[in-house]
Each structure stands twice: as C-alpha cells, then as structure tokens.
Specification:
The chain is mainly β. The chain has strands at 8-14, 17-24, 29-37, 41-47, 56-62, 76-83, 90-92, 97-98, 103-108, 114-120, 123-130, 136-139, 152-157, 163-168, 183-190, 193-200, 212-217, 223-228, 233-240, 243-244, 250-253, 265-272, 278-285, 288-291, 294-297, 303-309, 316-323, 329-334, 340-345, 349-353, 356-360, 362-369, 375-383, 391-398.
Length: 402
C-alpha cells in the first residue's frame, strides 16, 4: 500500500472570485481548479484552526474601496465557505452575515469559535460567533465602547487566545490634512466579548511617525514582529501578559536603499517562517509619473526582504532582498511545509525601459525556500485583473492526508 502523503492547495482572489489551485511542491507549479464567487470583492480569508475536524474558510468581502477616495460601497459581508478535505473545493456554507462597512482583515480564534473582523473606514473591530456546524452568527456587542484608533488594517488573536490586537496604521499628512497617529490596540477577549486592555504607540510622539500595518508571531517564543508600512521598517517586540512591549527591542530597515524612498513606497505583509528561524516582509511600490500622457512606474522597490532571527534574542538580521517580478505585492504565503512561497501583486503596471513603455500584468511569483531561509525564484504566472479588479489575497493550506 502506498504511503500517505499530504496534498496542498493554494487559493487566491481576483475581485469577488476565489480560485483554487493544486500545488506540486517538488516542481513549484500551480494548476487551477474550481472557483467560487463571493458577494463582493474578497478582502481577506482565514481558515478554521488546523486541528479542526472540518475545514472552513471565513471570508470578508465588500463592494467598497478606498475610504479616503470616498468609495464606501453598500454590500459588506462575512461568509463561511466549506472546504472539501479531499479535493480542496469550496462551497458557500450558511447565510453570509451583513457587515456595517468595508472590512479589511479578519481572523479566527484558536478554538475556531469566533471570527474577528477589522474595518478601516471608519476604524472598527467586531467579533462574530461560529456555530458548531461552521456557519457564522451575528456580531457580539463589546463590553463597553472601544478605542479603535485610525485606519485599522489587521486584527489578530494574541497567542494566549485571551486577548485581541487591532493594528491601526494612521495616515500620512496629505493635501493640507495633518497626520493621523498609528497604534497597536489591545483588547481583552472573553467568549467573543471585547473590552479595553491597553494601547501602545512606540516612538514617544503619540503615534505620529508610526504607521504599523501587520504583525506576526513567533511559533514558540514570546516574540512579535510588525511591518511598519509608512516608515518601511520591521519592529520586533516581546510579549508579556497578552500585550507587546511598549517599545520594540529591535528596529530594522526593510528596503535595500532606505535613504532613497520614492512616493508610494510601503511595506505590506509580514510572515514568520513555520520553523521560527526567519521572517519575511514585502516591500511594495506603485507610484507613477507622467510620460507622454501615460502614468508610468516611478522606479520604487518591489522586493521581499528576508531576515534571519537570532534564536536567543529574536533579533532580525537582513540576509536577502529578492525581486517580486511584478508591482505592488500586497500578499504572500508559505505552504504549511515551508518549502514554497508564493507572492501576489495587485494589478498591472505600465513600466518604462530601454525598449519603451510596456504593460506588466499582475502575477503570482513562486519561490523555493532554502534551508538557509533564502528565496530562489522558480517561475511566475501572469494574472488577468479585468475591470479594475485586483488580486487582493492569497493563501495556502494542507488538505487531509490521502
């Protein structure tokens, strides 16, 4: 009898369509399979905990866009999708729950009993119950009004599962409007009920000059790593009693040329490798200049920064920058075995080189991960992003061994 082996699946969204791909880890290839359509453009996806007997995805979607541009939308939903453990196929499970505004991120607690959702305009956080059959219920009221900062961009359960963290980015000063401060907002979490715990804004300026986007946690040490979007830096915090240290222990630049920033140069996603030895941060740029009436890329940096982690102190040390081979990578993911990484850019970009101006499509860029943590580019798949739809989310999961 043949030995059991684990199959992996990759999922990515373009607009409202979430598509499944079979993965060949050894050959670093992706093969498209089925897809499912959500009630609006997919904003984020989070799976049920790995230990769950049944597999579900919890998906936030919206027809809204940038709050700063006034694209508020009207249809905002939280949906449960059932994942077939043999094939990876997706199917809507239960009725989607209506949300009050555009969600930007969501996660599931460690027990698989609650979905938490972050909203950026206005900044907010909610918790919804997950019923025993995997479907989602109505939002649970917080114990009291919550301070949710300015422009929330991520919500995470703390490793203890007793507290939640809302990462609020703030905003740069723009068009005569003063800068909005950033912060990390911590809340107690008890059976879905959120209550105030504490807030931190490193730097001693009340959150000015501090624009965090996403965090990730070390799998076994009390360490948290944060991508600071507006400052293009990586922060490392220690964890104690469900909150992070008020100041980072280490601050590292993520850009290969941090003194040569251009407009619209930012960090995006951050992930700690499953083995806890490395952390990865995406540098993204999509600023443009006018070239004979066309908006053309302005030569910012689109790379993945790779840091090795000191096993005793958690200090990150830069070991590599690797090109993304596309523009504005918003999301990337590892397969659960930690052998492949796939990075996804949002949209096509007009780019100027010695041959003139040409269009570079959005893409999924596939990399092999070495034992030293470094990435080796394997291939990329061009992605059609029609009618201003964006490739907004990508993730991988292991299916039931078979």
């Amino acid at each position: 009898m043949a030995a059991n082996h684990t199959r992996f699946a990759l999922y990515r969204s373009v607009g409202e369509v979430l598509t499944q791909f079979d993965m060949d880890i050894d050959n670093a290839t992706l093969t498209p399979r089925g897809s499912v359509t959500l009630p609006g453009n997919v904003q984020y996806v989070w799976p049920s905990p790995p230990a769950s007997a049944r597999k579900f995805f919890y998906v936030t979607s919206s027809d809204g866009g940038s709050a700063s541009a006034g694209v508020l939308g009207k249809v905002h939903r939280l949906s449960a999708l059932r994942v077939d453990s043999a094939t990876g196929a997706l199917a809507l499970h239960g009725e989607p729950q209506a949300l009050l505004s555009r969600p930007i991120h969501n996660c599931v607690d460690a027990t698989g009993s609650y979905v938490l959702t972050a909203y950026n305009g206005p900044s907010n956080i909610t918790a919804h119950r997950i019923f025993p059959d995997g479907s989602v219920g109505a939002a649970i009221a917080p114990a009291e009004p919550l301070d949710t900062g300015v422009f929330a961009h991520q919500v995470r359960m703390m490793p203890s599962n007793r507290a939640a963290l809302l990462v609020t980015r703030g905003n740069d000063a723009s068009h005569g409007k003063a800068e909005d401060p950033g912060a990390l907002k911590f809340y107690r979490f008890n059976e879905g009920v959120l209550s105030p715990l504490t807030s931190i804004s490193p730097g001693g300026r009340g959150g000015l000059g501090y624009g965090p986007r996403h965090v990730d946690f070390h799998p076994s040490k009390p360490w948290m790593y944060a991508s600071i979007e507006r400052q293009n830096t990586l922060h490392m915090h220690t964890l104690n009693d469900d909150v992070a240290s008020a100041e980072p222990l280490f601050i590292k630049d993520t850009l290969s040329g941090p003194n040569h920033k251009v407009p619209r140069q930012m960090c995006s996603a951050i992930h700690v490798h499953p083995n806890g030895r490395f952390v990865y941060v995406a540098n993204r740029a999509d600023g443009t200049v006018d070239v004979k009436g066309q908006r053309v890329f302005n030569a910012g940096e689109n790379t993945i920064a790779v840091f090795a982690l000191n096993p005793s102190t958690g200090e990150p040390t830069l070991i590599q920058h690797v090109e993304t081979h596309s523009y504005h990578v918003r999301t990337f993911s590892f397969d659960p075995s930690g052998r492949l990484m796939v990075a996804a850019s949002t949209s096509a970009m007009l780019v100027r080189d010695s041959d003139g101006v040409h269009n570079v499509p959005a893409a999924m860029s596939v990399y092999r991960l070495g034992r030293d943590g470094k990435l080796t580019f394997a291939r990329k798949y061009d992605v059609d992003t029609p009618r201003k739809k964006m490739q907004f989310w990508l993730g991988m999961m292991a299916l039931t061994p078979g």
